[in-house]
Structures are given as C-alpha cells and as structure tokens.
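Section 5.1 Outputs to date
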Amino acid sequence: MPKTQKKPSNIKARPGKSEAPSIERQTARDDIEVTALSLQSGALSPQMKAYFDKCTEKLGFVPNVLAAYAFDNAKLEAFVAMYNDLMLAPSGLSKLEREMIAVAVSSQNRCYYCLVAHGAAVRAMSGDPALGELMAMNYRAARLSKRHRAMLDFAVRMTNEPWSVEEEHREALRKAGFSDRDIWDIAAVAGFFNMSNRVASATDMRPNAVYHGQAR
C-alpha cells in the first residue's frame, strides 16, 4: 500500500466556515453612537422638541444628524432652518433635484452619512432605486436629461474646483433652462452639503440604520 504523506508541521489547515472570524453587523451601533464625539444632548427649545416629535410622527425616527446637533440648541436651530429653506422651501429646483445635488456632492466628498441618508431620499422620490445608486457611485453613468447633467456638472465643479467656476459655466446652466435664481439655489445646496459633508466626516457621523433598506 502507498504510504500516506504527513503534512509538514508548519502548515496549518484552512479554517472551516465555523472557524471564520465573526464580523459585527456594520449598523449595530449607529443609532447609539451617532458620532465619535462625547457631546451630551442639551436642553431643547419647545420649537425643537416639537420638530423632533414631528420627525418621529412623519418618518418614524429622528434623523441622526439632528441628534448629533442636539448638544447645542442654537446650532441645531440654525442647521434646521438652513436645511429646511434650501431643501424644502419653494424653488425652481424640484425636491428631487435638490436631493440629487446632495448625493452627487457627497459622492465627491465620500461622505458616508449623506450618501446613505440622501441616497435613500433619491430612491424614494424618484421611484427608481438605480438612480439613487448612480448618484452615489457616478452620476455621469446615469441616463440624465441635459438639464440634470448641467446641474450636477456645475455642483461637482463647485465642489472640486470652486475657483474654476466662470461665466461659461453659469451660461451652460442658463442654456439648460435654469434662471439666475435657480443657479443661486444650485450653488447654495451644493455649498451647504460641502459644509455638512465635512462636519459629518470629521465627527464620524453615522446615518440611521433604517436608511439602508429604504426604497430598495
């Protein structure tokens, strides 16, 4: 009978499935440890308490970005006022267009919080899950109208090379059908999310776990 060869003592057998190291579910603590900073929630004004209650009523949860800002009521109120004005108030830009800008900008900045939260908003508002993914991955691969391509090109240029914006880029928006007020709004939304992206990344702000499964 042929002799069986012994395995060299320095070679270890590959671990079976039962021996594979476990990986913690990535969203396990995201709704508990909202940021990497130890900031305690402060006293909220009656207006902000009511706003949090409204979020819970309409969304089923309070967005973690609001919880993150809750350590300082004045900063929370300023953030909420600016966000609501830019993203929800009447504008020549639709709410979906403003969310598309948010995600395209956040993609350039690789902002985990905003890509997850606003990617979910694009999926929900458009009824097209793939559009949300394309905004997050590479908006240039999306089948966009000339209007939307011009809008996102401008927002991304403003994000990556703001010093390079010239009249020709504003004129490209006008040719795509945007008014001068619309151009202001595109710039304001892009500017706001550049600020938000940087704060979120600096503090390791974590999006609500529920966003990951929305509108898929």
